[in-house]
Amino acid sequence: MSKVNLLERRNFIKGMGAAAGAAGMAMAAPAMAVSQSANGVKWDKEVEIAIIGSGFAGLAAGIESMRLGAKDVHIFEKMSYFGGNSAINGGLFAAPGTPMQKKEGVNDSVERMVQDQLKAGRGIADEALLRHVAEHAVEALQMTFDAGSEYHPYLQQLGGHSVARTYQTTVSCGAGITQPLLKECRKLGVQTHNRAKFEGFLVNDEGKVEGFKIRQGYYFGEEDTGKLMHIKAKRGVLMATGGFAQNVNLRMAQDPTLTAEVGCTNAPGATGEGMYEMFRLGAIPVHLAHIQSGPWASPDEGGFGYVSNYSIYNFPHSMAVNCLTGERFMNEIADRKTRADAELACRDKQGNPLPPILITSYKDSKKHPNTKKVIKYNVGWKFDSVEELAKHFNVPLKPLKAQIKEYNQYVKSGNDAQFGKNMTKAKGKYIEAPFTVVRLWPKVHYCQGGVQVNTKAEVKDSFTGKPIAGLYAAGEVCGGVHGVSRLGSCSIPECMVMGMTAARTMMKA
Amino acid sequence: MKKLSLVFAVALASFVSLSAQAVDQREYHKDVIGKDCKTCHDQGLKNYPSDQACTQCHDVDELAEQTARSEEDKWQNPHNNLHYGKELPCIECHGEHELKKPMCSNCHTFKYDKHK
Ligand SMILES: Cc1cc2nc3c(=O)[nH]c(=O)nc-3n(C[C@H](O)[C@H](O)[C@H](O)COP(=O)(O)OP(=O)(O)OC[C@H]3O[C@@H](n4cnc5c(N)ncnc54)[C@H](O)[C@@H]3O)c2cc1C
């Protein structure tokens, strides 16, 4: 960085306080964070490593840094509870070359996983980062084993993956990972602070992040609660603050179709101010407009709910049908964007949304633990005959019957002439009564965009291309890794590997 | 279901009228706390009670036992739930002076008939 740049940076940072103050008046909640010069700051506290955010990325970083000999690691979380999106996540974890793949005889490799992801990324994914994550994914999986996570005894093959490489926790939820990791963090001595909201960086004359401001005792949504503290971070600050899917203004700025009327699967804390603060500091924004909607969500419950995991498991041996026509309208295991777009196109004659249905044979669906719950909580239904099913959803009976017959031929031949679905996992699983059915409608789910990082989890500066000293980022807050479409179950490995990576880099710094 | 929402509506209506008198309080709390607001408002009267305020009297393990569900639904126990274990601060679901929705209902259709 040249001297001139430095000076500008400094003035820029100085000026930001006043500017944001004025802008703050007009701005809706959440109140914006502001970075400042660290000159003359009276530090309230000094820590060795500061981690902002308590999801997979933050927790993995906490554990790894303690294992590498850190003495004083702190996790700051703005919500009253820990875990972010990670604690409500589906618990699906992809990795290549795992013990279970060896047992099931699945032929997989780092290269293969990277190629699958590059394909879904449609040419704009970050190959180096994908490879780095795939290479270390088994280490991350091992970290969860060591902490006590338990997984279903089978692998799943999710949409866009060319082989079965996905583990899932026995509770079918990311909490099966975050709860053990949080315990492990505390066991190792990581200090965890809830109601602690990051409010901006404190930057020295060389542009290095020396510390940050945190609002301790913060109540979510009430921006001036709590007390502002200045904390110095000796080895650096790791931003693990997740995505911004809950911030309707920010997501609409990127994609105006994602209005408040579109549902969202994310935890309330996914509001993005940590990411935007890194941009103000000079981080490079990548792929912000690529915001992914989950094609497996249900309009009959909030958030991710129960149906999402139910349908993720069942898609390979199920048939998705447009209620207006009684016919299939997509490859049930195509990547997410393809399916979400296809679902959004299902509308009644007036053009209003008409959520399509997913039809599965009960004998096959019931193997998933959520099936019972889906029926019990009235977000899915069981039918003894096609007639009953067709009547319930007002689907034309004749074409539906014909479609089932046709689809069952594909099950037999292993070749889907309609949509080219990979029928391997559907083998022998004919669509027959009794059926279980759920309704589908996409929900805003994942932000591919964020700040650019390198394979050391350092945040790159937009003008110099060099890392911003003292600043690290990991997890969904980072952008560009996946490109246009992230494959399911590929975020857990990314968040955890990059969190571990950040810890390794910081411990060398 | 219909019945439940009716009860809820009535409760809500009575809450609205009561809030006009500024402070609504549960009968059983009146017996113990009386009018000493500071018992709960340990962070000052204008602030929320701390996350530890309720656990001065209520034992989390006991609460978890009282609301335990069958093995199949065991993680729907609000006081020992799947996502946050026993760590969820009480005020995420309960308010002394206002009715709140159980946090689970953000994503799930579980029923908590006795929730208040
Ligand atoms: C419902 C759901 C299901 C999913 N299922 C899967 C799946 O099965 N497999 C998979 O691979 N991916 C899945 N994903 C995606 C994946 O869960 C997320 O991408 C991942 O959890 C992000 O982890 P993270 O550590 O980056 O952030 P998060 O887990 O979101 O954690 C970020 C934390 O930072 C906190 N924070 C934010 N701003 C601040 C601030 N200013 N100060 C302090 N703290 C702050 C937040 O409150 C939050 O707790 C799912 C996502 C959702 C929403």
From TrEMBL, chain A:
GO terms for cellular component: cell envelope
Protein name: Flavocytochrome c
Annotated transmembrane regions: none
Family listed: Belongs to the FAD-dependent oxidoreductase 2 family. FRD/SDH subfamily.
GO molecular function: FMN binding; oxidoreductase activity
InterPro entries: FAD-dep_OxRdtase_2_FAD-bd, FAD-oxidoreductase_2, FAD/NAD-bd_sf, Flavocytochrome_c, Succ_DH/fumarate_Rdtase_cat_sf, TAT_signal, TAT_signal_bac_arc
FAD-dependent oxidoreductase 2 FAD-binding domain: residues covered: 49-492
Organism: Shewanella maritima
Signal peptide: 1-33
Key words of the record: FAD, Flavoprotein, Oxidoreductase, Signal
PANTHER family per UniProt: FAD-DEPENDENT OXIDOREDUCTASE 2 FAD BINDING DOMAIN-CONTAINING PROTEIN, FUMARATE REDUCTASE
UniProt subcellular location: Cell envelope
Major location (coarse): other
Necessary cofactors: FAD
UniProtKB/TrEMBL annotation, chain B:
Localization per record: Periplasm
Pfam family, one: Cytochrom_c3_2
GO MF term (any one): metal ion binding
GO cellular component: periplasmic space
This protein's record includes keyword Secreted: no
UniProt cross-references to SUPFAM superfamilies, sorted A to Z: Multiheme cytochromes
Keyword Nuclease on entry: no
Lineage summary: Bacteria, Pseudomonadati, Pseudomonadota, Gammaproteobacteria, Alteromonadales
Protein name (Swiss-Prot/TrEMBL): Cytochrome C
InterPro entries: Multihaem_cyt_sf (IPR036280), Tetrahaem_cytochrome (IPR012286)
Keywords assigned by UniProt, alphabetized: Electron transport, Heme, Iron, Metal-binding, Periplasm, Signal, Transport
Domain spans labelled Tetrahaem cytochrome: 34-109
Signal sequence segment: 1-22
Cofactor(s) listed: heme c
